[in-house]
Amino acid sequence: MNKRMRNVTVKGYFNGLTIVYFGIIFSMLLLSAVFCFVRMNEEIQPTPPFDKTTAMLIAGAFTAISMLGGRFLYNSFTAKIPIQKTLAAKMNLYRMATIIRFALSELPVIVSVVLFFLTAYYELFIFAGIGLLYFFTLKPSKQQFTGIVNPDLNELKILDDPAAVVMQTEISAE
User: Fold this and answer.
1) How far apart are CA 23 and CA 9, in angstroms?
2) Could you give the CA distance from residue 118 to residue 115 in angstroms, rounded to a whole number?
3) H or E element: which one contains 67?
4) pLDDT tens for residues 85-104?
5) Cα–Cα dist 55/49, whole Å
6) CB 142 within 8 A of CB 90
7) SS3 string of 79-143?
8) CA angle 11, 12, 18 (to 5 degrees)
9) Long-range contacts at 148-154 (CB < 8 A, ≥ 24 apart)
């Protein structure tokens, strides 16, 4: 297998994060639609494994814990960004923090939809909606990144040039 290096530009870096963001939104909406459609089928009506109160408590707990946990981990990782030596290291840490936050923030939607599928309690979509609305507020941007990093003049000059190469990644070519 042949390995080669690929340049990552400022524009490509932030476009990549935006693609991940919208991909997760699409997957949450698609999962919700599929589970809702399947559950509405009259032939598939299993007995709920627990009552409505328990389902609501589970969904509420997952919503609160995942949102607070995602925010805590994100803040923990982004607090380490300013001490990184290179812009590439800062961007890698920001990407890791953002993706971890995305993963934890989609959890309320997934848990609520799965619980709906198991129980058919439509009230669970309240927590899915809260999770989705919260996720909409997490869209990554260059402005958000610069606010966290407090770049020096050289880094700011690089970030203002969309074509500037900020890092290289190794890719496999066959």
Assistant:
1) 21
2) 5
3) helix 52-79
4) 999 999 999 999 999 999 99
5) 9
6) no
7) HCHHHCCCHHHHHHHHHHHHHHHHHHHHHHHHHHHHHHHHHCCHHHHHHHHHHHHHHHCCCCCHH
8) 90
9) 148/78, 148/81, 148/82, 148/94, 149/81, 149/82, 149/90, 149/94, 150/82, 151/87
Helix (H, G, I), strand (E, B) or coil at 68: helix
Of 2-6, 28-32, 97-101, 145-149, minimum mean pLDDT range = 2-6
Region at 41 (left for phi over 0; alpha for psi -120 to 50; beta for the rest): beta
CB atoms within 10 A of CB 30: 10
Per residue in 114-125, pLDDT (tens digit) is 999 888 888 999
How far is the CA of 70 from the CAs of 4, 106, 143, in angstroms?
34, 10, 20
Tokens of 62: 């997952």
**What are the φ and ψ backbone dihedral angles of 139, each rounded to 5 degrees?**
-55, 120
